[in-house]
Amino acid sequence: MLEVGCGKKGPPLPPLVKLPLAPERVLAERRGNTVDLQFTVPTTNTDGTRPANLSRAEVYAITAPPTATPLTDDQLLKLGTKVGEVEVKAPRDPNRTADADDPADEVEPPEGPGLDQGSVVRLQEPLTEVMLTPVEVPNEENEPADLDGNGASHPLLAPQPMALTRTYVAYGTTTRGRKGPLSPRTEVPLVPAPTPPATPAIAYDETKVTLTWPAIGATREVAPPPAADVLPSTPLGNTRPAIAYNVYDATNAASPVKLTASPIAEATFADNRMTWGQNRCYTVRTVETIGAFTIESDAPEPRCEVLTDTFGPAAPQGVQGIPSEGAINLIWQASPEKDLAGYIVLRAPPPSEQFEPLTPAPIQETLFKDEVPRGVSYVYTVKAVDRAGNTSPASARVTETAR
User: Fold this and answer.
1) Residue 65 or residue 149, greater confidence
2) In whole angstroms, how far apart are CA 288 and each of 127, 219, 241, 322?
3) pLDDT band for position 1 (50/70/90)?
4) Which of 74, 82, 389, 400 could lock onto 321 through a cystine, CB 3.0 to 4.6 A?
């Protein structure tokens, strides 16, 4: 008789702990001696289920000496410094999850205080003197590196000056305090920030605000990328970094708005947003590009200007006089200005140059009937007026006589 066994019995296996995915790549922007960090809170676990099993997200940073061997994740977290953490809404039961293709109504939403999963986290780290000093990385094997066959240490390459960097990573922590996988690392060069430009000069017309400032020269030299047989590094050398500028609307000093989609090379910028009567403040930061990373200077004092409409409309075009019985009819083309308030019609008996307005207030129509005695000639001109009270030059004159 054939018997089939079910295998050896043993203690039950512990439940699989769901871990949140690593936060998407930490984005870092350096402005002066401040690093602005940004990442997105995970919404999914490493097995593809949702919501993510996490209660907070943390960011760590380390300034390590440039070496050929990168630090391990354990070394980075042990020797690094916590930049900050944010509380995140957590699932009531981390094991009650839905697969990626399950309907949304089958997912119990996370609850509690903190940010929603999927939110964008923004943190700042001021760079201090302490952060400019690399941490000491212990040699876990207690032996010198780069030994030759006789046990004598030797350098692989001639020493080169290196640009110190600070490395940032983020990860999610589960409801029970277990760390999820680390995000990809982001490195920020710790070279001195570039020199800020002078406060910009402001000029404007009816269509745009134009900013100009003195150009800044390169402030340091950076070596070209190493050849294929040279260990990776960020040495300083003979290539000057690219200099460019970012322009900010600093009207709201607490949250300036970047107006340049990417750094511009020219020391001038045109802002096409025109709102008369608005107080507008601008500041410009110098931008240096080192490798794939850009560093902004500190912001100089903003330059502010109230945009005041002192620009009159163009003179009306196509003014014609059409005589009729006891009247002269005037017509002209509509002016194109968006802030047009109307037109003033003026008349003078020739040869007098003393024009008197026939309309006490601007009229909206592009025609006007002037009842005058028959056989008497008059000279007419038309001016346009905008809503700020600015008046255009006089149109071409026309002379007519009523029949």
Assistant:
1) 65
2) 18, 9, 6, 66
3) very low
4) 400
Q: Do 184 and 94 share a structural domain?
A: yes
Domain around 392: 320-401
| Lowest pLDDT segment from 231-235, 238-242, 381-385 | 231-235
Average pLDDT over residues 163-185: 94
Please give the structure tokens belonging to residue 289: 């590009």
Statement to judge: residues 167 and 56 lie in one domain: yes
Count structural domains, the chain: 3
Same domain, 257 and 377: no
Does 345 fall in a domain? Answer: yes
